[in-house]
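Q: Predict the bound structure with nicotinamide-adenine-dinucleotide.
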Amino acid sequence: MRRITIVGAGRVGETTAQILAEKDLCREIALLDVREDVPQGVALDICQTAPFFGFDCSLTGSNDPQIMRGSELLIVTAGLPRKPGMSRSDVLEANVRVIDEVVDQAKRYAPDAMMLLVTNPVETLTYRAFQRSGWPRERVFGQAGILDASRMAAFIAHETGFSSRDITTMVLGGHGDTMVPVSRYCTVNGIPISHFLSPERIKVINERTRKGGAEILALRKNSSAYDAPAAAVAAMVDAIVHNRRRLLPCVAILEGEYGETELAMGVPCVLSDHGLESVVEIDLNATERADFDRSAAAIREDIARLADIA
Ligand SMILES: NC(=O)c1ccc[n+]([C@@H]2O[C@H](COP(=O)([O-])OP(=O)(O)OC[C@H]3O[C@@H](n4cnc5c(N)ncnc54)[C@H](O)[C@@H]3O)[C@@H](O)[C@H]2O)c1
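A: Predicted complex:
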């Protein structure tokens, strides 16, 4: 991939840029932010890590949205993060305005790009970006499930003592309190986690996963998480850039899958150089399905609020 623009040079945006550069995932990384001089400073700072990591892509920062020109991928991290005690939905109104502005800039300067949404509440804003851009769902999708699955994997690794390399997890639904960790599809090298963990311990892990972001926010106090979120975004970029056809939980616009339409939520997807190539439908038992439906209803409530935000 030649050029990627990261919109929002805050914590998640900056860390994502650093990881993309270290992994040499494209030739040009552009950082766009409304804060004067900040994206330029971030770009310069990361450039100066090149000798340590041995990358030679270029990094530039700007306050001018024309920096998007020529980008094949836009990663949108612009907007307000929540503060302790707030839910992701509490920042909806402020962030819809930011996303609308970014989508309009994208349509003007990078009309053929893919758009990867990170800003919260990510499902609702992915849906908004899809609607406002008029782009196909293959090119408008979001990150949440990879992060949630990595959190769950970390907790399983802590509990079992096994290497996190061997742990595979699946988390569906919304990126909030209604998220759906599907422990039945979680394994240690193919062996279901129920072989190693009691139902009570799995319940604790599920709950900690659901509250994984809030746990970090409470500890960090003046910042929400950004190291693992940026790594999760980079995993999606890697799958796209290398056309890996990885099966990863992503925020996708549903077009009949799981019986849902006019909704964006976390489901297993295939990521390739076409973007979000397809949604994979997996069997859910009655409890999992009920949890999935509850999560869909919570996202629908936020999406309904969009109509009131002109
Ligand atoms: N989807 C996920 O898994 C996930 C994980 C972590 C954080 N997030 C979300 O990502 C977003 C960013 O978090 P952060 O910690 O980096 O916040 P941050 O405050 O550090 O950075 C946000 C940046 O966006 C910039 N910005 C605001 N409006 C803009 C606009 N119109 N155009 C360009 N830039 C603009 C701000 O100036 C700021 O630099 C938040 O909404 C947060 O909730 C999502």
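A: The chain has a mean pLDDT of 96.
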